[in-house]
Structures
1.
Amino acid sequence: MGKTRPLLLATDSLGAATVEDLSWKSILDAQACANCGRCENNCPASLSGKRLSSREIVQKVLRQTRATLKNSSPQHLHDAISQEEIWACSMCMACVKNCPLYIDHVGIILELRRNSVLQQAQFPAETHTMLRNLELYGDVQGEGAANRQQWALDLSLPLVAEARKPEYLLWFGCSPEYILNYQTTIKNMVNILQTAKVSFAILGKDELCCGDPARRLGEEDIFQNIARKNIQKLDDLGIKKIITICPHCFNTMKHDYPEFNGTFQVQHVVELVEQLIDEGRLELKYPIHKKITLHDPCYLGRVNNLSAGIRKIITAIPGIDFKELPRNSENSYCCGGGGAQMWLHESPGNRISTLRVQEIIAADCQVTATACPYCLSILGEEMKSCDESGKFKFMDVIDMAAYSIGCNYGE
Ligand code: SF4
Ligand code: SF4
């Protein structure tokens, strides 16, 4: 489910302008749609009042396909599907997961985004700076190589280029590093790996963005440029195994890089921590006496089937009273930050994160665990405006594990 369709080059169009530019699978999907509404009923964009219906997207493709056959001329998709619809999607995959006919709504939306960006130069103004930063500096914030991973200097981590055949490359990700207030969690990840004596090294100034925001926005030029540079660098350094803390880096490097011959063994850190606990290399011994629930990140739980691993870590910590949210695991509800929504303004309707935070408050747990810098940042900010008492906190599962092992940063 996490694999993105390659950019189609079979027609003159980049992305899909007309139904003839769509893949045979998308055309077949439109014919097969039972119009049952299960996709739409689980879509956070629809549920929060956006003008996007995953069901309607498929139905509009069907109508344009029929009109193409009737008129013997290819019908334009942008005439039927608005810009507002295509930019409202957080690419959470809830529609795809809930469709009984395995229809891929996101593939259609992505082809429309690609065509808007690559052929019509139409994309939301809020993304201009981020895309320019990716193009010029290789990271979302525009920090550039000179400032890359400066905050980690005091950790004295080995660089891959200088280390003696490390087993893993530890990939930080530029969003977690620069914009998501996540450096303490990254340091706790480092502490956990060092406690378990895992052999790893970092890229330092050579680490670029993985390219995820560009790919989800349909900016294939920028994405492919970054992906190819990263793959070349990793190959030159002989990297075989990668660990990352960001579900979006994880998904992109695991599922999208093989399209460009980047075939690495990519693990999210929760997979590795679970494995280290099983092997007896980490002992979760210090209790956390709190009522805790869990918000599953879409790109771990639904897209990559890692829900069980996160729960295994949480429930292995002594003292925790664990309670599930109503929408959990592969049926979790999006935080609203995927599909490059992190850089887009949400309107109309409620914010997706408002609905999720209301659900979390109703569960009445002191702490909500999660395992994604985007989820932590977006839901944490939303909670500040919904809970003035400060009763409800968010915590990354890596911070919880580091505390229980006794190696958490700063204490
Ligand atoms: S869930 Fe699938 S079959 Fe049902 S309306 Fe959505 S796309 Fe069509
Ligand atoms: S990926 Fe998520 S936000 Fe986008 S249409 Fe599907 S359910 Fe809605």
2.
Amino acid sequence: MRNPFHTDTLEPDQPFCNRARELRELAGHARNGMNVVLFAPRRYGKTSLVTRVQHQIRAEGICVIYAQFMRLVSVEDMVHRLAKAIITGLHEHESLLDKGKRWLAHFPSLQVNLSIDSATGSISIGVQLVRANIPPLEALEEVLEEVGAFLEKEDFLVCIALDEFQDIVDIKEPRVEAMLREHIQRHKASYIFLGSRRRVLLDIFTNKGRPFYQSATMMELAPLPEGECVDFVVQQFRRAGKQCSQDAALAIVRKIECYPYYLQALAYRAFEQCQDNCTVEDMATAYESLLANERYGYQAIIQGISTGQLKLLRGIAKEATAQITASAFLQAHGLSLGGVQAARKHLANQDIIEQDEQGEWRLVDPVFREWLVRTF
Ligand SMILES: Nc1ncnc2c1ncn2[C@@H]1O[C@H](COP(=O)(O)OP(=O)(O)OP(=O)(O)O)[C@@H](O)[C@H]1O
Ligand SMILES: [Mg+2]
């Protein structure tokens, strides 16, 4: 029996829980040429959702381009990723093999190499700069100019997704942000800027002093609705030839607080754990196995933070939600006010902690929280 749960980015044909409204809205914005910022914590399904939307609108004749900016290291790196994404997206819209001559000429700064696998017939695309030693900012400007001029001439719609967009900040070249904004505002396309370090991403679009201020409509991805999650788990079990009662499915969903990645990760383990019928006890065993598996990632987070940050994290985890500047909290966790403020900034920028409507702080990831409580 094949396990029906998946923890990689979901392909458009894989089962997907809910998000019907978000799909509809994103597709609508793409058709209207509107720019959108899509934000949510890590592993909430942003990339899967955008992949799905782009797949859907491509079938309507919209040209879709997807570039991944995760861990950008330099402006040069950005130019390459962007250029490759643009050529790949255009090729999928109008094949380089029969229509390439028509549009490739509009990108004189790029040299495109095609290799065709004779066995499978699949094409791989290599993109380089014609002027290899050009300063990276100049190269970026050229590519953006050429994209703009090309879009101006074409009458098809284009949707460009820039994943983990906030990582442009990490290359520490302030002129990039202004240059991108300058060109993107003139591009005849709809952009989706998505990312998980929400504070960093949102600051780009909501800080008055920054070039992208108020240049896109904001869209937050919430946890999945509880009822939909339960139905999803029950249906996927059934589809794959096993049973999961409503109670067991609800236990799974509540344990991980509707967090999309953990929904699949825990259900995957529960499916492996049970015989033909998943029970609440199977779920509990599966949860322990999930924690054991995830601990490597959690340990890596802990190793990457300072002692003060760890103290704050532990304090918030233990109290579930916390007034972290209250003297009782500081005393209980051996923290100073100055230490808390510095630690909070770092942990919030990394999207490890967040503030709720009441102003209290909590861990973003419920399973990480439980691991912290058990470990320290
Ligand atoms: N609507 C959904 N239905 C079912 N599972 C989902 C859904 N959305 C997300 N998931 C689960 O969450 C996992 C993470 O999805 P995805 O990689 O798209 O998220 P992301 O927000 O882009 O994550 P990251 O922050 O790591 O880039 C998927 O593998 C899948 O298991
Ligand atoms: Mg992603």
